[in-house]
Amino acid sequence: MAEATQRRIGIADVKPLLQANIRTLCQQLAPGGMFQGNYYLAPNPRRGKDRVGSFVIWTHGAPGAWKEHDAGDAEKGDIIDLLIYTGQARDKKEALDWAKRWCGLGGKSDVEIRRIAGEAKKQQSEQRAKEAKRKEYLVKLSTAIALSGVPLAPEQPAWDWLAHARGIPVQDLRDWQLAHYPEGRAKSFLGALSFVPELQFDWPVSDQLSDEWKHRRPSAGKSKHPGIVVKFAPIGGGNFRGIHRTWLAADGLSKAAVPSPRRMLGPILGCAGFIWHGESGLKPREAEQRGHKSPLVLTEGLEDALSVACAAPELRVWMVGSLSNLMNIPYPPCANSITVFADNDWNNPQAQRALKTAVSRLAVDGPVKVARSHVGKDANDLMMAEANR
């Protein structure tokens, strides 16, 4: 009999089967959670709801890897360790037995189990290759859209949207930059942003639209509008990976009449829009290379980021796009502190839990605090309220 047939079934054989069903496994081992981006967030299955927000299980990349962020590096592991941590087994031997039962492998021969595990590995490999190809395509598409834009300037619908519709004194930002940055750096104003005069909007199929939008959908399923594009790049450096788009009305005084006038495009998890470089004027990678650290403010939206930059232009300000992405942002080497200017999502428990998880995760590596507006929903609402006092 061949040596491969004689080898006993081990953890390496069942692990791919567990990972292939990671979403079901997450909900069973840590009930009461939610999926956000590449993560599953749940109450800690050992400690109960008093720790909601810090227990995280990866669903992509290394499915089943987990960590209790409030415990630092003391409580983390892979999918097999997860079975032990959640009380399904006392050790890896019991975890293997549990996994075999859970995967429906009881009574099957070792040869059959290996065949099933091999198929699972092959499917995972094919899926990873497919995802990698799609990501590559989305990066190329994002790059093409961004390159079709022009720098932000007065008399554009994009400028009117920011300056008039949202009350952001972008000219003050430009004046501050000219006064504080060296000449070469002052020429690049809000380089992460561009204005695209004809930004294509791809409409969902009619069946996915509400009655309000069905009659507005163009027969071709596409329409073009002025738009603002924000480039998103990895925190550690490198070319940008995706974009955030805002479609505008022709006069720039409102968003375009489309079902979802804000959209992300591309694999932007762990990336940010580097909206404002703060007092130094140094890009993140330049600051890291020079050992320059400064306070950093993170916001979800573009208008919030620009509002913060106007109020405190000496600070570095980045846009992260969503709470899901905030949970993937590492603590940047160019930051000596982080302030998350959060939206007031008081009526959204999932958003509150995601925020708590993101903050606790960042706080492992450095000082983090949360700021909120005392009026409205966000930083832009606060700026507009202050301007109208």
Structural features, described:
The protein folds into two domains: 3-125, Zinc finger, CHC2-typedomain (DNA Primase, Chain A, Alpha-Beta Complex), CATH 3.90.580.10; 148-387, no CATH class. 39% of the residues lie in helices and 20% in strands. It has 15 helices and 14 strands. Strands 6, 7, 8, 9, 10, 11, 12, 13 and 14 form a nine-stranded mixed beta sheet that branches. Helix 2 (11-20) crosses helix 6 (110-147), helix 4 packs across helix 5 and helix 12 (302-311) crosses helix 15. Residues 1-6 have low confidence and may be disordered.
Q: Would you spell out the secondary-structure blueprint of this structure?
A:
Elements: H1 3-6, H2 11-20, H3 22-29, E1 34-36, E2 39-42, E3 55-58, E4 66-68, E5 76-77, H4 79-85, H5 92-102, H6 110-147, H7 157-165, H8 170-180, H9 183-186, E6 193-202, H10 211-214, E7 222-234, E8 242-247, E9 262-265, E10 271-276, H11 284-290, E11 294-299, H12 302-311, E12 316-319, H13 323-326, E13 335-341, H14 349-363, E14 368-371, H15 379-387
Parallel strand pairs: 11-12, 11-13, 13-14
Antiparallel strand pairs: 1-2, 2-3, 3-4, 4-5, 6-7, 7-8, 7-10, 8-9, 10-12
Helix pairs in contact: 2-5, 2-6, 4-5, 12-15
